[in-house]
Each structure stands twice: as C-alpha cells, then as structure tokens.
Amino acid sequence: MFFQRAPADKSYCITKELLMTERTFKKDLEVITQSFQNAVNSVMPDYLSHLMFSTLCPIYNFHCNFIRNIEQRIISWEGKYNTPVNPESQKIGNVLLELDTVLPIYRTYLDRLEEMLSELELTLKRNREFEQLYKEFEAEKTSVFFCIFQDNLQKLIELQRDLVGIDSLIHPDREFIREGCLQKFSRKGYQQRMFFLFSDMLIYTSRTATSLLQFKVHGQLPLRGMMVEESDISKVAVANSFTIYGGNKCILVAASSEEEKDKWIEDLNFSISMAKKQTDDRLKYGSIRSTTSEY
User: Fold this and answer.
1) Which of 68, 99, 135, 272 is deepest in the core (most CB within 10 A)?
2) Tens digit of each residue's pLDDT (9 = 90 or more) over 263-295
3) How many beta carbons lie within 10 A of that of residue 54, not counting itself?
4) Domains in the chain with CATH codes
5) How far is CA 227 from CA 190, 216, 239, in A?
6) Which residues form the PH domain (predicted)?
7) pLDDT for 139-166, tens place per residue?
8) Which of 219, 204, 215, 208 is nearest to 163 (CA)?
C-alpha cells in the first residue's frame, strides 16, 4: 500500500516539472521570435513576416506571462511553516485554465504552418540577401544547439542552488535529462521523492522543511553499470513499480501510472546506453553531505 504525504507535495512536484518544461519552451520560442526575427527582419518580405510572427509572437508573450504566474504560485505555495496557508495557493488547476486563451492562436498557427513553410522555402530561393542572412543566423551562437547548451547550463545552475546536500553539480559534460516524482520504498514504506536524471547519474531527494523551494538529496546512483528491471506484479503489492540497480545500491520505486512508469524506464535505459559510450572519466560525481540514507 502506498504511503503518501500531503497531496500538496505531489502537486508541488508536478508544478515544478511544468515550470521546467515551460522555461525550455520559452527559450525555443525566443530563438524564432527574437533572435531570428532581429537577424532577418530588414530583408524579410512583409507577407512572410506576418505569417510567422503574427501568431508566434503572441504565443511567446502568453508563455512569458504563464511562466510568471507559475513561478508566483510556487513562491506562494507555502508560507512559513506553522502559519496558516491559503488552500488556493496549493492548487495549479486555475493557472492551467489560462491555456484556454492561447488555444485559438495555436489553431491559427497550425492552419498557417504549411503555407508558412512553403513561403519560407520560396523566399530562400528568390531572395539572395535573405538567404545569406538566414545562413549566417544558422551559423551564429544564437543557433538552436547553442541555446540548448545554454538552457542546460542554466538548469544546472538552478539545481545547484535548489538541491541541498550535493557539491560540484555543474560540469560542462553533464547534461540534465528530466525530473519527476516517484514513490520510493524505504524502511518507512513508500514515500514520495523527487528524482533528477542527468547524463551520468540519478539523484533522489525530498522537499526540505523550509519555506525555500529546495530539495534535500538522499542519494545518487551512477548510470554506468546501472540496470532497470520492471517488477513482477505478482511479487509486489504496488502497481507500476520497477527496480533500479546502480552503484552497489538497489532501490524500488513506483510511478503514478503505467504511462509514467514506461517513460521513466525508457529515459533511464536511453541515458544508461549513452553513458556506456562515454570512454573518459572527466565527470566527477558530486559528494553528498549531511544526508539521511534510505533503505
């Protein structure tokens, strides 16, 4: 049987994961609506400019505001402990309802997408100056690949601040993969933990008992040599569970749904396979300090 903490904790973890996804999407939109627009706007035909930016710019502006609202909700999620908390500040549904306002713009964007791509292709063939600026933009630091690198570095900096009890998280060869909530089995039963998957290790944490938006690190497992095994439902009492072996440790976890379990197993196995291809030992695992071990 699941041992569950306050429902707000699960909602909080989901909201944090949503915020991370939104920030990444916002960065991708910035490449088009700001960097690309500024680079080619002087020679881009008005019709093509209207096709692209009359929908993408409003979408970008919406997500900027949406992120601010999510951040504000997380900040107000919980005041100081032992003080009354407004129940409305521990909900995210009313914030998500804001998505209804942007759906018509997305529909317009999708309706125009085929025409937009065709017009872009024609302009590249007919307008030499536009073609030159387009190629220069692809080669500049504002390319998508550079933005992905910058996003990853920014995420590592944020996690170095938010994860309490681990040193040296930031490394140029370390890539952040994903985060999410799983129930982890310990001596106290199943407890909710926040997991962070990187290109070289898996970290599991719990939310700190402070008003700060931080997580206490309980353990880490290296991806090299790691194995993931789906649990036999006839031998475990909890559905959607799987076992992770790594670094002389074995942890049993359970996801909230079969879909979530399959996604975690897929991401873990892919990251494990990529870690096996790394032949150097430049990455050093951060040391865990003053944490509570779980078995």
Assistant:
1) 272
2) 999 999 999 988 887 765 556 555 566 444 565
3) 13
4) 10-140 (1.20.900.10), 164-276 (2.30.29.30)
5) 21, 25, 20
6) 175-273
7) 775 455 555 666 787 788 888 888 998 8
8) 215
